[in-house]
Amino acid sequence: MENFEFVSPTHFVFGRGVENEVGAKLAAVGAKRVLVHFGGESARRSGLIDRVSASLDAAGIEHLELGGVRPNPEVTLVREGVRLCKEGDVDWILAVGGGSVIDSAKAIANGACVDCDVWELFETKALDHDVLPIAVVLTIPAAGSEASKNTVISNDELGRKTGYANNAQRPKFAFMNPELTFTLPPFQTAAGLTDMYCHLLERFFDDYGAVPVTDNLNLSLMNTIRAEAPRVLADPENYDARANIMWAGMLCHQGLAGVGRHEDWATHGLEHELSALDPAITHGAGLAVMFPAWMEYVHGENPARFAFYGQAVFGLTPTGDANADALSAIDETRSFFASLGMPTTLAELGVEENDIEKMLPTLAQNKGVPFGSFKKLTLEDAAEIYRLAL
Ligand SMILES: [Zn+2]
């Protein structure tokens, strides 16, 4: 097991109605003035923003609102949030939404505490500044951003989408009510399931040997997602299935499922370029296409690892030929994503062969070259993987 540091400061409040506890919990830690950050008008129409606001009012906490976060959140709205925080003396940020809203809130929380433009942090990866504390009311289980140290922001002007990691931006509170996810459309539920499963794959496949305590946790989360996915898609108001998925999404990405390993993250890099090329591409859908292609391209580095995965998650019987077993495990992975209704080719996402060249320069900027761990990838490798996914 490699040396590691693991920080997890998030106070989880989980279950029915917990969004009504936001005010009391934040007041208890001294919050005075909160920026409530959210996405589309559905958060308001559903009454959720009103319930959260009432909870803050009851606790005597002032609040202002900034809605309009889009999927693949963009730096322009982040800058607006930074301005509101600086001018409005905001001391906490409350994200009401899924990964996009939480990521936007994290960027604002950093930007509010620095003098430079917030995008500079995504370029320099600087860590030597304060970060405003963040609380989350989660409405979309997928990205795991409610407890993770990561944020990913797009910059349309530069045609970039890039990540920034900082333990100080891990949310201090995550309010998680599975009932808030009952009305998620099936595609969004499926894309979320795919994203959380891929957060496990990124950690399971790297150039390090076995780390049983981490690997077994990881594999058990994969099995949980596979078991709960059909239940939640068949019956969207199944509280227990929704609850298991919501908690799993957090566990997949808060860090524990990868401690002591190197982790890979090449495929997330490949996918981020797709969403930068076309912000209409849902992250989970892009991953469903790219992960099997990456697996096909790299499995020869360590077919036994893939064979082990196939046995542990899909119950495949070893044939004595690790390469054949690896290919079976990859087929099963593709079939699992397809069973959720996810796309299997770039063509289904509207991406063509001549788009590949456009993505490579920003991929190099965002990931550095070589990138990945299971196999160190060059830009030629990346182009080959995109081609496999066409
Ligand atoms: Zn992801």
UniProtKB/TrEMBL annotation:
Pfam families: ADH_Fe_C, Fe-ADH. Gene3D superfamilies: 3.40.50.1970, Dehydroquinate synthase-like - alpha domain. Residues 9-178 form the Alcohol dehydrogenase iron-type/glycerol dehydrogenase GldA domain. Residues 189-389 form the Fe-containing alcohol dehydrogenase-like C-terminal domain. SUPFAM superfamilies: Dehydroquinate synthase-like. Keywords: Oxidoreductase. GO terms for cellular component: cytosol. It comes from Adlercreutzia muris. This is Iron-containing alcohol dehydrogenase.
